[in-house]
Amino acid sequence: MRMPRRRMQATRSRMAGRINWFYYAAPQTFYSLAGKSTPVFYALAAILGAIGLYIGFFVAPTDAQQGEGYRIIFIHVPTAWMSMFLYVVMAFWAAIGLAFNTRLSSMMAQAIAPTGAWMTFLALWTGALWGKPMWGTWWVWDARLTSELILLFLYLGFMALQAAIDEPRRADRAGALLAIVGVVNVPIIYFSVQWWNTLHQGASVSITRSPTMATTMLWGMLVMALAFWMYCIGATLTRVRAIILERERHADWVRDLKGSPQ
Amino acid sequence: MQPPLLEKEGNLLLPFRAPRTAQMNASAPIAAFACVVRRDLLLAMRRRSDVATTLFFFVIVVSLFPLGVGPEMNLLRTMAPGVVWVAALLASMLALNRLFSGDYADGTLEQLVLAPHPLGLLVGAKVAAHWLVTGLPLVLLAPLLGLAFDLNAKSLGILMLSLLLGTPTLGLIGAIGAALTLGLRGAGVLLSLLVLPLYIPVLIFGAGAVEAVAAGLGAGAHLSVLGALLVLAVFFAPWAAALALRISLE
Amino acid sequence: MLLANGLECVRGERRLFRDVGFELDPGALLHVQGRNGSGKTSLLRMICGLLAPAAGDIQWNGTDIRTLAESYRGELFYLGHQNAIKDDLTATENLLVSETLAEAPVTRASARDSLDRLGLKGYEDLPTRVLSQGQKRRVALARLLFRERSRLWVLDEPFVALDPHAVREVAGIIADQLGGGGIVIYTTHQDVDLAAHQRIELRLGK
After folding, report:
1. What tens digit of pLDDT does each residue of A201-214 get?
2. What predicted TM-score, i.e. pTM, was given to this entire model?
3. CB A216, CB A59: distance < 8 Å
4. Is B198's Cβ below 8 Å from some Cβ in A?
5. Given A56, B124, B186, C66, which is the most exposed site by the fewest CB atoms within 10 A?
6. Which residues of A touch B176 (CB under 8 A)?
7. Is residue B45 part of a domain?
8. B243 at the A interface (CB within 8 A)?
9. How is chain A split into domains, by residue range?
10. Do C100 and C37 fall into the same domain?
């Protein structure tokens, strides 16, 4: 299960000739690296977001069927993508932390969860805003919306479990196991919700499928997706820095930080 | 308190004991499995009120629905599968708290972890015993409640069958959650937050099977998926729950 | 036989101990000492493999105990802080269950004999919830009589709540095990005289 310390050191020396990944895996070095790169990600997010919104609001044509209301998809679709993708990334880091007992990966998983939940919430909210003018109701039990709601529950469960455990090691490992179980279940849940939806032919309107998508719409969506990527990376790194400080607050290097500004 | 009775029940523990002949005893895992199942059944027999509470909860939740939505039989008939299934889901979740917490509190859980057997096997035994006292009664009681919702005989049969296939899966998935939340404050509410989203596929296919029959379609596909979910759960859940127990016991 | 290297224990924020090591041969007795909260129970749980050390490793016959897993657990007897007996089962039933799980040779008769030897004659068929603290501890300790084959005994406060007579009885059982080449690791706050040909005192904390 766990990588014995000795083998870890052997791997470390073997890799010394190439890029030394373990150097960056130490919380201390990662802390300063993340500190330097966070502003870059935020800046990119702002720039890409401005471009994407400009395309979305001014360049992309009005949809023949849905009018102006469709423009919410420039937020809705990227957040929905991120919400699903982040869960997988979170489970990946959590699993690495569980298997190799690397503290930083567990901290990454913990840092990703709130951003993922936030993206899920945004996707649901914008979905509801989009649904009101289109279907005349805030909520329909559409397969995608329902799966997204369940995904939000999974995020909240992960965060609640970690919050309830005081011992960091147990919180990391218990959360990791839950995330892995969740990631195995997500396809099953998605498949069953799809099945359920096709059986109950009430609300079978699909939310993201528009008949033909203009090229500019597609571009706008892609740029917005990139902007959300940058935002999520930036937010995660900011949070991971806070977690590192909290967990290592008794370490010498954190005490030394108090004297210096950064 | 009643020595003669205890003596008689206690004999349950004896017959399946395997003799220790060599280091590698092929029947040892089976004996250990049977030992844990028997122990938990015996404990449940001495605490019958706990079992009754779960059943009572199941019945009362189901009977609340007509009071909430009105006594119109057509409406109730369409709702019945969903109502019975949701109630079964909640009842089995309510019982999950007891799965490991007693053993955790008195230290027997540590001894189970230290027993020279795969922990997943012993967890499987605990889930099996737990299902026999909390899941099986739900299966047997469900047709009675279905009658109150005017389900026909065929639907009732499928309802039982779907519960028979579905409730063990609920117990197996729930065991992971119960192991993860062991000894935490507010474990009960937390457990429901962790476990209920994972129950959704079982709910969909369980209730769906009965609805399909009521709509004149076959329930075969639904029941097959329920069976597949059960097989998956039997193979993976005890292992995951065992890992969760080790994490929680550290 | 049992070798521990550079063990470190961190619970929550606090480091309880670091760089703890020892080597125990057959017949050795290790007495773990220290104040409350110094990590005695944590060390014993580490030796059992219940708790992963923050650093260091534990080897049994030259192999890490995490690798050995079940075969190591087959050699091990752990008496925890808690008695690990079910309140709703009788003393005899408790023994039957725990020893069957441990693959120890147990019958209803031998279970009753062992309970008698620990002074529980007449209490064998009562649910253990009606027993006193000391009597419950004796039920837990009766398991020792089935574990001669376990070559490593880890006993957390075995003498707690026992009267002097029972303490002598248990000390005798431990002495027999040591004489038969078993390794015993224990903690106690009581003054109990245990003799062994290799006796190590380990003090945790300052």
Report:
1. 443 344 455 555 67
2. 0.87
3. yes
4. yes
5. B186
6. 177-178, 181
7. yes
8. yes
9. 35-259
10. no
